[in-house]
Specification:
It is found in: Cell membrane. The chain is α/β, with parallel strands linked by helices and about 475 residues long. About 65% of the residues lie in helices and about 10% in strands.
Length: about 475
């Protein structure tokens, strides 16, 4: 009887384990979250609304399909180039950013079924007399990096005798034309139409050409189940009429909705203070964490560079040479997209940003640590050693206290430099203060006023840090 009871109990436990495992697996499958990259400023397909939430045709389609097919998406506004590179390196699962399906891209990406058909148009200032491509001879034209519209413009540059200048986002491309630096820009028709409707001072002067299809993409050979889910969900959206409603919601937008808002300096500040403060908070957090690790990194390699050992000094010099010589932008992209493509391991944007600043700022810290110690008279070490102090103790008790006084202003100055350098990390999708400004401008096109606010905030923070530096310096010298 006991054996039967034990057998039944074991069978019951096994059944519960198998059933439970299946339930957990089914729940995990149902709740699977995909990381999806998108552009930062590409209305009406993706842009941040007044509440600083990302909306647009691409975003709504992706979220509707996720809801329909039982999975979740984490939308990451990285910028078009960064999003494409992040997919290639395996950092994210897919990209939906008004990406035109081309044979060249098909070699590197697997595309889902097309979800939007478009064509390229040329736009000029409202008062421009240019009416077509023939009027571009000898002129400068603005294009956006990595876009089909940009490729089309470059293919016509030699034929019509114009030169191109490239920008990473649409707003800067538009402003280059509005400000008169370029005479025209090339853009996909619905994007250009939306910009004009929301108050952009441009006009379209050509008919749509080189029509293409937008597609959702994943890295070639990966995530076939995600592509299948997208295709299935897209068919459902079209059949139910929800797809048409999403398009109409954005393509029928009128300029009046934005024009009714208060576009004065203080009106814009009041409306966007939440997004700006979030960006400032991210900037300060990133700066504090980065400077902490950069200080450890810099002090270690700085001290290594003053040891009475040729190999140690050579290592220090090499590290300082490499990380001071690499541009911060290149280092950020290498860490965020280059390393994952080699290792297959994802690196979160925040972590990649901290590592980038640690290496770059740490190299400069190491250099002035070496300089600060080197500025202490050599006789100090000789005197300490003559009194019988070991090298390490002489360094801790005699040399470092004097060297630290020399280094303090440089430490504070490096903190300020790190704060400013965080703006470069917007290239890998970190929404710090500069990126927050870009997102706001994409919605209201008030570049001058928004950049004025961002500049003022940076100046206030840097001024406070400068005062702190002088205060600490005075206290240490008293």
């Amino acid at each position: 009887m006991k054996k039967i009871t034990l057998f039944l109990s074991s069978l019951l436990l096994l059944g519960l384990f198998v059933f439970g495992s299946q339930q957990v697996q089914s729940v995990q499958a149902a709740e699977k979250t995909y990381e999806i990259g998108t552009d930062v400023t590409y209305p009406p397909f993706e842009f941040a609304n007044k509440d600083n939430k990302y909306v647009g045709i691409d975003i709504d389609i992706m979220k509707a399909i996720a809801k329909s097919e039982g999975f979740k998406v984490n939308i990451q506004p990285l910028g078009f180039n960064a999003a494409v590179q992040a997919v290639q390196s395996g950092q994210i699962d897919g990209v939906i950013a008004g990406m035109t399906i081309t044979d060249e891209r098909k070699a590197k990406f697997d595309f889902a079924d097309p979800y939007y058909h478009t064509g390229v148009v040329m736009a000029v200032k409202k008062d421009s007399k240019i009416t077509g491509l023939k009027g571009l001879k000898g002129q400068r034209v603005a294009i956006k990096t990595g876009t089909a519209a940009g490729d089309y413009a470059k293919s016509k540059a030699k034929e019509y005798g114009f030169t191109t200048v490239t920008f990473d986002d649409s707003d800067n491309m538009y402003n280059d034309v509005v400000n008169g630096n370029s005479v025209a820009c090339f853009e996909d028709e619905p994007v250009m139409q939306y910009g004009i409707k929301t108050g952009l001072g441009l006009k379209i002067v050509t008919n749509p050409v080189q029509g293409g299809d937008y597609g959702f993409a994943v890295k070639k050979g990966t995530n076939p189940e995600l592509v299948a889910k997208f295709n299935k969900g897209l068919k459902k959206l079209k059949a139910s009429g929800e797809y048409a409603k999403i398009q109409a919601k954005y393509l029928n937008t009128k300029a009046s909705s934005e024009k009714e808002a208060d576009h004065s300096f203080f009106g814009l500040l009041k409306e966007n203070k939440g997004a700006i403060l979030d960006g400032l908070g991210q900037t300060l957090l990133l700066t504090v964490i980065a400077i902490f690790f950069a200080t450890i990194f810099g002090v270690f390699f700085g001290l290594l560079g003053v040891l009475p050992n040729k190999f140690a000094r050579a290592v220090s010099d090499t590290v300082i040479y490499i990380f001071r010589g690499l541009p911060l932008l290149v280092l950020a992209l290498f860490i965020y997209t280059g390393i994952p493509s080699l290792t297959g391991q994802k690196i979160p944007a925040m972590v990649a940003g901290v590592i980038t600043l640690m290496f770059n700022e740490g190299a400069y810290t190491a250099a002035f640590v070496k300089g600060g110690i080197g500025a202490v008279s050599a006789g100090q070490m000789e005197a300490a050693r003559s009194l019988g102090l070991p090298y390490g103790k002489a360094m801790r008790r005699v040399i470092l206290p004097q060297g630290i006084r020399i280094m303090v202003p440089s430490f504070i100055n490096q903190f300020i430099i790190t704060l400013k350098d965080t703006s470069i990390l917007s290239i890998i999708g970190i929404v710090e203060l500069t990126q927050a400004g870009k997102i706001i401008i994409a919605r209201n096109l008030e570049g001058f006023k928004i950049w004025g606010m961002i500049a003022l905030i940076y100046l206030i923070v840097i001024t406070l840090l400068t005062w702190l530096s002088k205060y600490i310096e005075r206290r240490m010298n008293n």
